[in-house]
Amino acid sequence: MSETSATAKDDQVHEKKHDKKRGDEPSFNMDELQALAALVNEHGFTDFEFENENIRVRLSKATVVAAAPTQTAAVPVAPPPAQAPVEPVSVEAKEPSDPDAGLHKITSPIVGTFYRSPGPDKAPYVTEGSSVSADTTVCIVEAMKLMNEIQAEVSGEIVKIYVQNGQPVEYGQPLFGVRK
After folding, report:
1. 50 touches 40 (CB < 8 A)
2. Distance between CA 37 and CA 50 in Å, rounded?
């Protein structure tokens, strides 16, 4: 069997013949290889390989990527317009911008789905204004088909519910705000 390898580099075809002891069998001639290389180049292929029981042809086009040098031009920056002096504001004089700053936040201990009640037709465990003790169940977080009851862990009044029923929750996400 006669095996022919062809490589197209920069539109030039190089042919190598390897004779094996099976005798002379039909193969591509140079005109056919050049026509095949032109066809591969025309369609933008960088690699082409064909093989059957009589012949193996591999065309590979070497691509040279030249990186263009990049130049960064310094853009002159105009100085900012003169402004009237700003009087410093006392940080201590500001009211806390977070309305939930004085609240204890009950957070989700796991990733899952938040449920306010033990079932779809049941009343919620707690609502805004409910009084809770440390061992009061405030909600369920479902994770991997397991219903995990979440305890308040502090005594006080529920003043804020941060999550809607059926909403996915993350680890550490606030669920309730409790005023102690």
Report:
1. no
2. 12
Backbone phi, then psi, for 33, in 5-degree steps? Answer: -65, -40
In 3-state terms, what secondary structure has residue 37? helix
Q: Rounded CA gap, 169 and 164, in Å?
A: 10
Structure token pair of residue 175: 């669920």
**Contact criterion met (CB below 8 Å) for 40 and 6:** no
Contacts of 44 (CB under 8 A, 6+ apart): none
DSSP state of 34: H
Residue 101 CA to residue 123 CA, distance in Å, equals 29
| pLDDT tens track for 116-170 | 999 999 999 999 999 999 999 999 999 999 999 999 999 999 999 999 999 999 9
Domains of the chain: 2-60 (no CATH), 104-179 (2.40.50.100)
